[in-house]
Write a structure and sequence with these properties.
- The complex is a heterodimer of chains A (436) and B (244).
- Chain A is mainly alpha-helical.
- Chain A has 20 helices and 4 strands.
- Chain A folds into 2 domains: 252 residues, no CATH class; 97 residues, no CATH class.
- Chain A has a 4-stranded mixed sheet with strand order 2-1-3-4.
- Chain B is α/β, with parallel strands linked by helices.
- Helices cover 39% and strands 25% of the residues of chain B.
- Chain B has 9 helices and 10 strands.
- In chain B, helix 3 crosses helix 4, helix 3 packs parallel to helix 5 and helix 8 crosses helix 9.
- Chain B is globular, with a radius of gyration of 18 Å.
- The chains are: A mainly alpha (436), B alpha/beta (244).
C-alpha cells in the first residue's frame, strides 16, 4: 500500500473521518487507473493541441512585427490615448492645450508659503493677483468670461475669514477641478493652519511610496471609471486581430485545410488555436497593466481630467483576481470571434463583422464612465460582468461571488458557442438532431 | 485501394455538383480525373480527402470509411493543391518540423526524411527562406514536400502542374512517377491532356459531375474512334455535355 495512503488513514481515522479514508482506499486503485488513463490521453490525444499551441505562440515570437502588434502597439496606443485625453479635454473646454493657471487673488503670506513648501505648488500652476488687480480684472468682465471657459479663481477674503472659489457650475469639468483643488490644496492648508499657523505637514519632500499609498484610494476609484473597460476593449481588439489571422486568413489561403488534413481532431486544432490566442492576449494584457502602473506613477502633474491618475496601485490579491478575469474574458472573446468567423465565408465580411462587438464595448465604456457600483445581475452579463469585476476590484468592493458569476457568464457562453461552431462545421454531431 | 461508390454532392437544394460518381483505384496506380473547369474535379478530390462531406454515397480508403475513420484516413492520404497553402511568414524548414510533430513522426526519422525530400525536390537552398519570399514553383515544391511528410500510401493531387513553369512541372511529374514506383496510389485531377496521357494509368473523364468514360488513354482513344487522345476527349465531351 502506498505510504501516503497509510499516513492519510492514520490521520483520518482518529479525526473521525473514517468514511473519507475508506472511500479513498476503495477508490485508490480506480483513481490510479483514471490518473494514468488521463495522462495517456493527455500525451496521445492532447499532443496535437499542444503542438498547435506551441506553433501559434512561436509564430508570434518568430516575427518582431507580429510580436510588436500583439504586445507593444495596442498598449502603447492606449497609453498615448489616455495621456492625450486630458489635453484634449482642456483644449475643448478652455481653448488651451495645457491646464490654465489658477488665479489666486489676495492670498495671505501663509498660503503662499504653504504652496512653496508642499506638493500643491507642483500639481497646479498659479497666477497671483493683489486685491486691487483682481477688482480691476473682475470689473472688466474678463474674470466672468474666464470662469465660463473653465478658469478657476480663488479669492481670499481675510476680513470674514472666507475663501471663495469661482468656477463654472454648468461644467462638470470645472466643478471637478474646483473640487480637486479644494481637496488637494485648500483642505490641507486649513488643517495646517489649525494645527499650527506656520509649521505645516510632515511631508515636505516627495516620497513616492508614501505618496502612492496616500493617493491610492482616490486614484484607484478614479481609474475604475475607464481602465476596466479599456482593458477589456484592448483584450477584444487583440483577440479579434489574432483570431482573424489564425482562422479567417488561414482559411482564406488554405492553410487551415492543411491543418484539418493532419491526424489531429478538428476540435483540438480549434481549441489549440483558441488557447494560444487566450494565452498571448492575457500576456499582452498583463503587460498593458504594467504600462498602466508605470504611466500612473510617472503622472506627477495629476491633472484632474487624467484617465491614469497618479498613485494607481493594486494589492496582490486584487491583481490575482484581475489576472483570473483577463484569460476568462479573452477566452470568451475568442469563442465569439470563432463563431463569427465560421458563420461567414468572405474575408471582407468577416473583418467587418468582427468589428461589431467593438461597438458594444465602446457603448459599455461610456456607460461605465458615468455609472456607479455594478448591480448583482450585471456580473452575469458576458464581458460586461468582467468589466464590472475589474471595476469592483479597483473600487475595493470586490466579493468572491462576483468572480463566480463572471466564471459562469464567461464559461457557459464559451462552451455553447464552441459547441455550436463544432456542430455547424461537422466536427461533432448534434445528438438531439440525430435522435429526431 | 480507394473506392468511391455512388457519391453525390449538392451545395444547394436545386444544384447537384457531383451526380452519382463511382470508381476504384488500385494500389500503385496513377488515376487521373480529366474534365473542364466546373466539372466537379476539385469537389470530388476534396470529398476523397475528407475536407468535404458527400451528400450521399461512400468513399473508402483501404477499407476505412472517410467519414468514420477521419484521423486514420488522414495518416494514409496526402492532399495537395496548386493553391499556395503555407503560412507566408514561416520557412519550409520550420513548417516541416511543425507538421512532423503534428503527424507524430519521430525526430530522427523526420530529419532524415526531410533531408531526402528537400534534396530530391531541390528545396535545400531555400529551406530557411520565408514562404513569402519564394517563387510560385518553390512554394509548390515546399507544399508538396510538406504534404508528403508522413509518406502516405495514397496521394490526392489537385491540378499538379497548374501555374508551374516547364522545368518545375517536369520535376513534379517525375517525382510523381517515382512515387508510383514506390507503390503509392495517386489520384490527380487535371485539364491538361499531356499530363493525363503521360502520367495516368487510368483516366476518368468527368463532365457535369458525372464520369462519362473511363479507361487508359489508349482505350479511350480507341473507344471514341479518334486518332489522338485529345480528339477523343472532345468527342466524349460534346456527346455528354448538356447546356443549361
Amino acid at each position: 500500500m502506498n505510504r501516503g495512503i497509510k499516513v492519510l488513514q492514520t490521520l483520518a481515522l482518529p479525526l473521525g473521518y473514517g468514511t473519507a479514508s475508506s472511500f479513498v482506499l476503495a477508490y485508490y486503485a480506480k483513481a490510479k487507473v483514471l490518473l494514468s488513463s488521463a495522462l495517456i490521453i493527455y500525451n496521445i490525444r492532447m499532443r496535437g493541441m499542444r503542438t498547435i499551441i506551441k506553433w501559434e505562440i512561436g509564430r508570434v515570437f518568430s516575427n518582431w512585427q507580429r510580436a510588436a502588434a500583439v504586445f507593444i502597439i495596442p498598449a502603447a496606443v492606449m497609453m498615448v490615448a489616455l495621456n492625450v485625453f486630458p489635453y484634449l479635454i482642456n483644449y475643448m473646454s478652455t481653448g488651451s492645450v495645457t491646464e490654465k493657471p489658477i488665479i489666486v487673488a489676495n492670498a495671505p503670506d501663509s498660503f503662499i508659503d504653504y504652496l512653496e513648501e508642499t506638493e500643491g505648488s507642483t500639481i497646479y500652476t498659479y497666477e497671483f493677483m493683489t486685491e486691487d488687480e483682481f477688482v480691476t480684472y473682475w470689473k472688466s468682465g474678463d474674470a466672468v468670461r474666464g470662469i465660463e471657459k473653465g478658469d478657476l479663481t480663488v479669492f481670499f477674503y481675510p476680513e470674514s475669514n472666507n475663501i471663495y472659489i469661482g468656477c463654472n457650475g454648468n461644467s462638470s469639468l470645472s466643478m471637478e477641478r474646483a473640487d480637486s483643488f479644494w481637496g488637494v490644496v485648500l483642505d490641507p492648508y486649513n488643517d495646517a493652519l489649525e494645527a499650527d499657523g506656520g509649521t505645516i505637514l510632515n511631508i515636505n519632500t516627495f516620497n513616492p511610496v508614501i505618496k502612492i499609498l496616500d493617493y491610492r484610494t482616490d486614484a484607484n476609484y478614479q481609474a475604475s471609471r475607464v481602465i476596466p473597460s479599456i482593458i477589456v476593449l484592448l483584450i477584444y481588439y487583440c483577440v479579434y486581430s489574432m483570431m482573424s489571422d489564425m482562422f479567417a486568413s488561414e482559411r482564406d489561403r488554405g492553410f487551415y485545410d492543411k491543418l484539418l488534413m493532419s491526424p489531429v481532431s478538428p476540435q483540438h486544432i480549434v481549441l489549440g488555436k483558441i488557447i494560444s490566442c487566450t494565452m498571448l492576449v492575457s500576456a499582452a494584457s498583463y503587460m498593458t497593466f504594467l504600462f498602466l502602473f508605470i504611466s500612473s506613477w510617472l503622472n506627477r502633474s495629476n491633472s484632474s481630467t487624467s484617465l491614469i491618475p497618479f498613485g494607481l496601485m493594486l494589492l496582490p490579491g486584487q491583481l490575482l483576481v484581475i489576472a483570473l478575469v483577463i484569460p476568462l474574458t479573452a477566452f470568451l472573446c475568442a469563442t465569439i470571434c470563432l463563431s463569427i468567423i465560421f458563420s461567414i465565408r468572405r474575408m471582407k465580411d468577416v473583418i467587418l463583422n468582427l468589428q461589431m462587438p467593438l461597438i458594444y464595448l465602446m457603448a459599455d465604456l461610456f456607460f461605465q464612465m458615468f455609472s456607479g457600483d455594478s448591480g448583482l445581475l450585471e456580473f452575469l452579463i458576458p464581458i460586461h460582468g468582467s468589466i464590472a469585476v475589474i471595476k469592483a476590484v479597483f473600487r475595493s468592493n470586490f466579493m468572491i461571488w462576483q468572480l463566480v458569476f463572471v466564471l459562469i457568464a464567461s464559461i457557459l457562453p464559451s462552451v455553447l458557442l464552441l459547441r455550436r461552431t463544432f456542430i455547424k462545421e461537422g466536427y461533432i454531431f448534434d445528438k438531439r438532431k440525430k435522435r429526431s | 485501394m480507394i473506392s468511391v461508390k455512388n457519391v453525390h454532392k449538392s451545395y444547394t437544394k436545386n444544384t447537384e455538383t457531383i451526380k452519382g460518381v463511382s470508381f476504384e483505384v488500385q494500389d500503385g496506380v496513377i488515376f487521373g480525373l480529366l474534365g473542364p473547369n466546373g466539372a466537379g474535379k476539385t469537389t470530388l478530390m476534396q470529398m476523397m480527402s475528407t475536407l468535404l462531406k458527400p451528400s450521399s454515397g461512400i468513399i473508402t480508403i483501404d477499407g476505412l470509411n472517410a467519414q468514420d475513420d477521419l484521423l486514420e484516413i488522414h495518416r494514409r492520404i496526402g492532399y495537395l493543391t496548386t493553391e499556395v497553402r503555407l503560412d507566408p511568414m514561416s520557412t519550409p524548414d520550420k513548417l516541416w518540423d511543425f507538421f512532423a510533430e503534428l503527424y507524430d513522426i519521430p525526430v530522427k526519422e523526420s530529419a532524415s526524411r526531410k533531408e531526402a525530400i528537400f534534396y530530391k525536390l531541390g528545396i535545400t537552398p531555400f529551406r530557411n527562406k520565408r514562404i513569402i519570399e519564394l517563387s510560385t514553383g518553390m512554394k509548390q515544391k515546399a507544399s508538396i514536400a510538406i504534404s508528403l511528410i508522413h509518406n502516405p500510401p495514397v496521394i490526392i493531387f489537385d491540378e499538379p502542374t497548374n501555374g508551374l513553369d516547364i522545368l518545375t512541372s517536369k520535376q513534379v511529374t517525375d517525382y510523381l512517377l517515382e512515387l508510383k514506383k514506390e507503390g503509392h496510389s495517386i489520384i490527380l485531377s487535371t485539364h491538361i491532356f499531356s499530363v493525363a496521357e503521360s502520367l495516368c494509368d487510368e483516366i476518368a473523364i468527368l463532365v457535369d459531375g458525372k464520369i462519362v468514360a473511363q479507361g487508359s488513354s489508349e482505350q479511350l482513344t480507341k473507344q471514341a474512334g479518334t486518332n489522338t487522345f485529345e480528339e477523343a476527349f472532345f468527342k466524349i465531351y460534346v456527346e455528354n455535355h448538356v447546356e443549361e
